Amino acid sequence: MIEFAKVLRHSELLAPPAFERDSQSIEYRQDPLTGVRCRLNVRRARRPRQGQEPADISQVIQKPSDCPFCPENIEQATPQFTADLCPQGRIKRGQSCLFPNLFPFAEHHATATLTHDHFLPLDGFHQQLLEDNLSAAAEYLAIVHRRDKAARFPLYIWNHLPPSAASIVHPHVQILVERRPTTYQRRLLAASGRYFRKAGSNYWQDLVAEERRRGERYIGDNRSLSVIASYAPQGNREVQIIFKEASNLLDLDERQTSDFAEAVVKVLRGYHRMGASSLNLSTFSAAMGHRLEHYSLNAKIISRPTLQPFYKNDAGFLERLHYEADIELEPEALARALRAHF
Ligand SMILES: [Zn+2]
User: Fold this and answer.
1) Which of 18, 170, 221, 329 could hold 69 in an S-S bridge, CB 3.0 to 4.6 Å?
2) Is residue 24 domain-resident?
3) Ligand 1 centre and the CA of 114: distance in Å?
4) 125 CA from centroid of ligand 1 (Å)
5) What is the model's pTM?
């Protein structure tokens, strides 16, 4: 039922300096659920990058005295929830502190620090940091859900370092609860519903079963979830984490939260080993309140350009204006590299 559609095309040219005939292959792949397309020419990873010499990044990651997320400033510099929402003002778990986003783009929009450290490399995040952060996020979701039944669609997102669009270097995540799903989330929910009506089964669990059978993009699993490299990624090094028994973020119990933290930490270690330093993570959750048979809670992690001055962005006209990605690393090669960490 799951179709991994692809088309292979070739581009011919005479390559300098000898101007011999060169043929490069471009693979167009379609996401099995949404049909969203990406294209892949692995030789593009070898193209020249002007101004991309390795650089000293200490200036960027150095702790400024006024970082609002550092422990000595956080009480004075970050906002508090109103007393009716959260009488303590902020939610604290381990090194995580969760508070309202000072410049929100949603009715319910919180920020949560991940660590007391101003900077951590990707292999510096240990499981407890993520677990505490997710548990603070869960408490926030539960509070919002109790008070505002119209706010149903939760998002847990993490931009790490400026190449991922993070404005503050100090590691932090954002938690949103919205009345309506994002355009892409709505598409996932609708397509999963159509698949269920046609196939009589849950797309996400079928996808994991098929990827496990094929083995090429399957990375690993634990008690609560499975991890695969996306067949038709929208970002470089795109990894999907698919829960076995949850359709929304509020469903997660302690064990599932801990298993999620474990999987994320393993992906981060793999990224670090591959030379990545910046990333985006987002969950894709159904509405809070009841479990959907046709949808499984899932998350995506993608790597972003390495932190360095004048880095080359990886989102150009194709990604930003045509919603189609130009991918440099084969998902199958990514799976092989990450499998060692699972
Ligand atoms: Zn800081």
Assistant:
1) 170
2) no
3) 11
4) 15
5) 0.95
